[in-house]
Amino acid sequence: MDRRTTAGAAHPTPSPRVAQPISAWPEEMRPRERLLARGPAALTDAELLAIFLRVGVQGLTAVDLARHLLDELGGLHGLYDTPFDALLEFRGLGPAKAAQLTAALELGRRYQAVVRGRRPIVDGAPAAYALLAPHYAGRRSETVTLLLLDSANALIELSDVAQGTVDGSAVYPREVVRRVLAADATGVILAHNHPSGRTQPSEADRQLTRRIGDALRAIDVRLLDHLVCGEDDYYSFADHREASLAR
Questions:
Q1: For residue 129, what are the domain limits?
Q2: Which of 40, 46, 189, 199 is the most exposed place for a label (fewest CB within 10 A)?
Q3: What is the number of structural domains in the chain?
């Protein structure tokens, strides 16, 4: 077994096995094709990283290699905290690939620093919609989005968690909880767009609100609102005192 050492700790890679190459997978399962068809929010962290890695190593696909890297480093937080020299210790990451990954991670850090330096205050539905309207502009499919806020209602992060119709999207409460905990958010505004322009919520919208609200209450985080966004208008669950939000 190939073993690599980082900062004094051994990092074994999985034993080589016969792996079907990604090019032989059904097209709807390949990460790059899924991203093109459904958008980046539909992919796991490992699948996104696999697109960056492009190729695996003997016996392991790029997805296998990406999963192993994230498992060893403790997920995306660990990946961001790993210096260039330590990345070189992992099988499948040569100097060129490690340098590209380090550069990409540094761009992410710098972007977050810019965002933190001018974080808007989201103190109600109008402020939330001002951020969401340009985010949704031109989209032809429904996208479910989180606005993660700190205790002063300053925006920490705006991120998409699913694409497709709300009742057909894979909007997993555990993924929402994971992102909230990673951002150390204390409040959340849930949102999704209706490309048709109609902003009246459906029963599926209310069910989604209940599911996400229940999951957030379990970690003592408030679901502040759910916005259904059209091209030039929105519906706010909080403003309409929707029971599904107030549970």
A1: 125-246
A2: 40
A3: 2
Judge whether 185 and 219 are in contact, CB under 8 Å: no
The answer to whether the pTM exceeds 0.85 is: no
Give the helix ranges, DSSP H, for the chain.
Answer: 31-38, 45-53, 62-73, 76-81, 84-87, 95-117, 125-136, 173-183, 203-217, 243-246
Exposed / middle / buried, residue 24 (Cβ in 10 Å: 0-12, 13-18, 19+):
exposed
Per-residue tokens: 66: 């990406």
Closest CA to 146 of 215, 196, 79: 215
Give percent of the chain above pLDDT 90.
34
Q: Provide DSSP, 118-158.
A: TPPB--SHHHHHHHHHHHHTT--S-EEEEEEE-TT-BEEEE
Instruction: Please say which residue of 94, 116, 138 terminates a domain.
Output: 116
Confidence of residue 209 (pLDDT cuts 50, 70, 90): very high
Identify the residue whose tokens are 């990954």: 101
Flag whether pLDDT at 17 surpasses 80.
no
Report d(CA 214, CA 51) in Å as an integer: 34
Verify that 21 and 56 share a domain, yes or no.
Answer: yes
CATH of the domain at 183: 3.40.140.10
On the question of pLDDT at 3 being above 50, the answer is: no
